[in-house]
Amino acid sequence: MRCVTFEGRCRTAGSMELRALYELDSADIENRSAIDDDGKTIVWLLAGASPARTMDPMACWKSGDGSWARAEEASGRAHQGGALRLWDDLERVRSRWEETGRFPLHELTVEVTPEATSVTSPDGERIIHR
Can you give the pTM of this predicted structure? Predict the structure, then answer.
């Protein structure tokens, strides 16, 4: 297990824009967030098939390699385990989004083909290509 400090970015990690970008970048990663009793955000990332895609609510626990990440706004720390560094991947996507001006989703150009997925920012810079 690895613990990283994320300096208050848990609330950003739960934002709709970043969640959508992360889901486009990282297929089959279940991304959930909640608010605890003190109003602080908690974010979970789980490797595996998305239950929404498989109609099996336990799919994210049955498949994948068991990689996971959990971040708590209250402690300012993220923990991650498994072969995939999920929080590191989320931070990479967040950094690219912030470098390109934190644009709203409706300004994105998304191209999905059988061969690749690409997302281009409003200024024409490709931010995701896989």
Answer: 0.70
